[in-house]
């Protein structure tokens, strides 16, 4: 009778597990419902990969992904450069329009009126802030006054109770003396 004792996993089981990870990656890529363009691009990358073992497959996938990302970065950089150039030309055009606008004789008058308007707005804002500050101070003073009135009313009520108690005691003494 032969007893076989196995510790850990066999090489075949490890290889099957590695391929299972690869297959799970492929299934997840094929089965998703979001980011269709990204999934399609990744599937195209995977069609170029033909690794004979999981490690080789992973290395080829990594290299293909790096190449794809580099191509995407180059495309984005090219798009960015075109966008920067377009924005630079638009900026130059707007500068010319502003220069033409500022050269107009009425522009100085408009600028003076605008400065006066801005000054008056700033003064109005300052005064509005001052009003808010004064209203807040008044509100706090009213609250403090109400608190003080309540405290004084409580003190008066206490004093009235004391006077009434003393009057009652005095009346009791007077009745007892009669």
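-> sequence recovered:
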């Amino acid at each position: 009778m032969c007893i076989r004792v196995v510790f850990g996993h066999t090489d075949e089981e490890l290889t099957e597990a590695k391929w299972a990870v690869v297959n799970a990656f492929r299934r997840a890529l094929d089965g998703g419902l979001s980011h269709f363009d990204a999934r399609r691009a990744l599937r195209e990358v995977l069609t170029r990969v033909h690794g004979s073992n999981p490690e080789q497959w992973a290395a080829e996938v990594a290299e293909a992904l790096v190449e794809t990302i580099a191509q995407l970065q180059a495309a984005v950089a090219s798009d960015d450069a075109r966008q920067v150039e377009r924005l630079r030309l638009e900026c130059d055009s707007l500068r010319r329009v502003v220069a033409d606008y500022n050269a107009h004789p009425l522009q100085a008058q408009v600028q003076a009126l605008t400065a006066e308007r801005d000054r008056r707005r700033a003064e109005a804002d300052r005064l509005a802030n001052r009003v808010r500050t004064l209203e807040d101070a008044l509100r706090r003073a009213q609250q403090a006054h109400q608190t003080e009135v309540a405290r004084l009313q409580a003190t008066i009520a206490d004093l009235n109770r004391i006077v009434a108690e003393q009057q009652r005691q005095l009346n009791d003494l007077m009745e007892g003396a009669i």
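The chain has a mean pLDDT of 86.
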